[in-house]
Amino acid sequence: MPRSHMSTARRRRHIVALIAILFIAVASTFAVIVFRSIDTILNTANQIDDARAVDAARGAVDALRSQLSGTIHDNATWDGAYKQLNSITRRYWILENWALTASDNPLYDTAVVIDVRGKVIVAYKDGNELGVDPAAYFGPDLNTLIGQAYNVRRQKGPVPVQFIQTKGGIAVVGAATIRPRLSATRVEEGNLYVLIFARHLTPKVVNHLARAFRIDGMTLNSTRDQNMLNVPLSDVWGRDVAYLSWPSKRPGSQSFLAVRTQLAIGFAILMLFLAQIVIVGFAIIRKLREDEAASRHKALHDPLTGLANRAGFTEFIQEAVSDPNGSIIQLHLLDLDGFKAVNDTWGHGTGDNLLVAVAQRLRTTLSEPAFIARLGGDEFAIVTVAPQGAREREAVPDIIQRAVSTPFEINGRFIQIGGSVGVSVAQDASAQTGELMRTADIALYQAKDFGRGMTVFYDQALGSVLDEQSLLEEQLRQTLCNEGIDVRYQPLVDARSHSLRGVEVLARWCSPTLGPVGPDSFIPIAEKTGLIDMLGLQVLEKATAAAAMWPAISVCLNVSPLQLKDQYFVNRVAATLDRAGLSPKRLTLEITEGVLITEPDQAHRAIAALKALGVKVALDDFGIGYASIGALRRLGFDRLKIDKSLTAELDKDPKAAGVFQATVALANSLEIPVTAEGIETEAQAVIAKLSGCDLLQGYLFGKPVTGDEITAQYFGSPPIYSSGQP
Questions:
Q1: Residue pLDDT, tens place only, 414-444
Q2: What is the pTM of this model?
Q3: Structural domain of residue 550, as residue ranges?
């Protein structure tokens, strides 16, 4: 081969070698860049998943503390508890309601009650006595926690809950002073008890948290494990006393391993198929991005129902209120009615299935723009965002009510529940997320207060009404603390001789700001807030003390159905009569017909106990349509009082007189004496007497007056009265 040709071939080989080297260098550089990118992406995916897991674990810790805080708040802010802890039966009550239930209570395992002087009233763990002083068991942090509890004003601040190293291990511990709900500002702070609940972080509790928040392999350690993810548990001083630790899932690394074989093959043929390597790289990137999206979805959604969770709801609502387009934002808070009964009756598995069914029902019945979230437990949030005037605001609540009130078929059972809905509406982007939630919460609270299946829209008037009711309750509580309830007496006269046979006792109250408040207004408040027992006993005390100075006549007093539920009511009546020196035979307690329907068994037990004591029992408001003949026979009433609605037209309407006579005839056939109330004319008195009533009451014979006026009018000189008893 000529030299010139050899030189040309060598040059060509050099060029080919140079191209090959350049190709290899470019391919290697590209491969390095690709693998470095893959490594960065998979590490980022790992970090995102780790961050999600840490957030979930922190959420688990917050949920643990919030759950205990809510449990303590519900138990400590309780009128019945406040009353019982100031009674002689407090230890028995504490054992029955808190201490003994700790053995199988999923919310706490230790219950301690301490008085203001630091004396331990009850200290139980797992249903048994603690056996050691709580100060030694919980250590010095307990006193700090108790101090924090006393600093919380009127239970409106959060209940202090901290993690403490106890003799039994790490426990989440909370404390709160025991006081009435919506307490008056002058509650005796020197007589408050402290309720302490603790829940030890046993392996069972930790495993439950791990399952609930989808964190595999979670354990409780006393030190930080550098090879695992950790969330610290801090005590009252902010010191880390323990750590929740779990292994990282490393989804990015797992994704890389899933495609490792393909990458190896791609790298082997990289020099020939560089384009395929690029495709594989993009495929890996896409997979890692999907993992990142999946991790984000898990962080913002409820694992049970698939709806957005509280974090997802918060993110959505913040974006909605920041939208400057002037849309109407309508927030509906839904709380299921009867869900607790489902859990108690059929178990939590059925309850979870019901929550899933509710979520699916809401998805299918609400239109696409509605955003639905499960905030926790049986509480849901539905948000609609629409242009001004685009939707009638009642439409969505109606759909929600129909959706939850239609029976659900769960495991072959048809379950009927309902829902209470509180609605708050923001008209523009100036609304704040916190204010929207606060007003919706107020509306939801009012809806639940009204009863099952109610929807309430928040407005300024609602806030004002709640403030006024709160003020009225506070004033009534203060009045009762000062024994300031007034008592009036209305005469009961013999139908034939019109001589005094007895008096009916009536409660009267004058509000410091509103003036006189009618019983139809303040008695429901007393029943709602748990003050009815105090109110009833004060009226009974004053009435029996006055009656002790009036010979022979009877004293009639109305009793609330809630008083009959008190197991100590009969004992308190007996003690009051004993203090006044009044014979039980001179006292008649009146109950309404409604209690025979709502609480028949309790009414039967209470009536039997009162009659055994010697107290007479009368059925008030007879004739308005509830009491059956069977109930009258079975309960053995000593007297019936004809409702004044039947006497109002006696002298005007013959039909009314006929109904009245038939009602009295029914009572007489059962040999039960009858009182006619609301008598205002002589004609009404004559008809009532001829119909068979033996006692009459009404303005014709006297309006409600003070005890001194009764004494002056009937006993200033030797009174004329019958020796018989009504």
A1: 999 999 999 988 865 555 777 788 888 888 8
A2: 0.46
A3: 489-506+535-715
